[in-house]
Every structure is written in C-alpha cells, then in structure tokens.
C-alpha cells in the first residue's frame, strides 16, 4: 500500500532534483523523515545527488519542521531543503 | 493582554519609519520600541542583488510560531515582523522586526530572539546575483546563527 504525497523542494535541493514539486506514491512502510530520504534517494541519480549529504538536508511535514528520526504521520505535504538563510 | 504579532511576507519594500509610527500611535503605554532592519549588502561591489526564495505558507506559519513564542516569553505591547522575498538590491531592507514594550529589556530581547529563530528556522533561502551579470551560488547557512539561537534554549524551555 502507498499514499499520495506532495513533495516540494527548495534552493539547491530543487536544482539538483530538477523539479519544483511533484506528487509521489510513498510506500506505507516509509515512516520516518530519514526513511523518506532513503526512499527518495532510490528513485534516481538526481535524488541521490541532491540528498547525498543527509546532514545538510532539512525537512518539513505539513509545513512544520521535523527531525529525521520523527515519524511523518499523515503527511500530505513533505518539503526538503538546505539549512535556511533568511533574515 | 498578550500581543498579537503582525506577520507579513511580501515582495514589496517596507517602510520602517511608517511601521514604527503606526505601532507607537496605537498605544501610549509603550515605553520602548526596538527596530531591527536586515539589509542587503553589496559585498564590496561583488553583489548586484540577493534573490530570496521562500516556502509560501510555511514561511508565514513559522514566523508566527516564533513570534507567538516571543509574545509568551516577554510582556510585549506589539511585535511586527516583515520579511521580503524575490530580488532585493544592495541597500534595500530584507527583514524588519519591531518589538514594543513598556520597558526596554523586553523589547530588546524579543527582537533579538525573533531574529535568531527567524534566521535558523524560517524557510527562506538566499541566492547571490553577481555584479558581472552572472548568477552566483546559494548562500551557506552560518554556524554562528545556530549558536546564537541556542542561547535561548535552556532553563526557560520546557
């Protein structure tokens, strides 16, 4: 089983993956932030390149920050991006 | 009464003086008004502009979460935070924080807290546009910003 989730990417993560956002069918056994990253890296070389340095990747689920060890729960929207540089 | 933060994410420039005047006019109980404006530097002439990318929706939500926390921690009369996105030229403002309180300590600390968390947790990313017309790289996050944010974590956190 899987669920359909909207993925959004920002800054150089977006450039390396090559799309701004997309809908993907996320397998139900992918439960944590870290597992999402591992699963995405298996989708292709562009994902593997973008998400290679796990320390440099930040995540948000339903527009709230999560840690890689957190479960993603009922994620409708998952965002991946580098450390933020606003202000 | 706890202040309700005024949060704005916009491409347009802001007018710090006008925002300050509006806040001070709204209450005669304000004794201290602290303003912080973050500006785009020219980096010694190297930079033509900064491009600010943002996560629409989450940017506002995250700024509001930080601002609500500031209003819980300090007795503020007002807290306004404006963050721009899009192309910003050297000399222009990127971010404006105004904290107003009866006394100065709360206003200083709330503005400082707001900026520290904004820099490390509000979903904005800066990219350099260079003076020679080429596109520069994405600005790397500054570890000193993480250290600054960590100052606020401690006894006061649950």
UniProtKB/TrEMBL annotation, chain A:
SUPFAM superfamilies: MoaD/ThiS. It comes from the Bacteria. It holds the Pfam family ThiS. This is Molybdopterin converting factor subunit 1.
TrEMBL record, chain B:
GO terms for molecular function: molybdopterin synthase activity. Keywords: Molybdenum cofactor biosynthesis. Gene3D superfamilies: Molybdopterin biosynthesis MoaE subunit. The keyword Thylakoid does not apply. It comes from the Bacteria. GO terms for biological process: Mo-molybdopterin cofactor biosynthetic process. It catalyses: 2 [molybdopterin-synthase sulfur-carrier protein]-C-terminal-Gly-aminoethanethioate + cyclic pyranopterin phosphate + H2O = molybdopterin + 2 [molybdopterin-synthase sulfur-carrier protein]-C-terminal Gly-Gly + 2 H(+). Its EC number is 2.8.1.12. Pathway: Cofactor biosynthesis; molybdopterin biosynthesis. The keyword S-adenosyl-L-methionine does not apply. CDD domains: MoaE. Belongs to the MoaE family. PANTHER family: MOLYBDOPTERIN SYNTHASE RELATED. Heterotetramer of 2 MoaD subunits and 2 MoaE subunits. Also stable as homodimer. The enzyme changes between these two forms during catalysis. Converts molybdopterin precursor Z into molybdopterin. This requires the incorporation of two sulfur atoms into precursor Z to generate a dithiolene group. The sulfur is provided by MoaD. This is Molybdopterin synthase catalytic subunit.
């Amino acid at each position: 089983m899987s669920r359909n989730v909207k993925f959004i990417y920002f800054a150089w993560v977006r450039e390396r993956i090559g799309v701004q956002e997309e809908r993907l069918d996320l397998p139900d056994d992918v439960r944590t932030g870290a597992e999402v990253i591992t699963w995405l890296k298996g989708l292709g070389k562009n994902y593997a390149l973008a998400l290679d340095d796990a320390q440099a990747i930040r995540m948000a689920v339903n527009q709230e920050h999560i840690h890689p060890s957190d479960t993603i729960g009922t994620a409708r929207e998952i965002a991946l991006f580098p450390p933020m540089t606003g202000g | 009464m706890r202040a309700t933060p005024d949060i704005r994410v916009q491409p347009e420039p802001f007018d710090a003086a006008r925002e300050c005047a509006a806040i001070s006019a709204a209450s005669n109980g304000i004794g201290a008004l602290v303003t912080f404006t973050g500006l785009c530097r020219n980096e010694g002439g190297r930079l033509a502009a900064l491009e600010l990318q943002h996560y629409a929706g989450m940017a506002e939500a995250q700024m509001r979460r930080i601002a609500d926390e500031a209003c819980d921690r300090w007795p503020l009369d007002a807290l306004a935070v404006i963050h721009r996105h899009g192309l910003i030229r050297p000399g222009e403002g990127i971010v404006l924080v105004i904290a107003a309180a009866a006394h100065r300590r709360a206003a200083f600390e709330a503005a400082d807290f707001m900026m520290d968390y904004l820099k490390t947790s509000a979903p904005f990313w800066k990219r350099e546009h260079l003076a020679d017309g080429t596109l520069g790289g994405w600005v790397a996050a500054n570890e000193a910003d993480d250290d600054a944010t960590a100052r606020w974590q401690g006894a006061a956190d649950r």
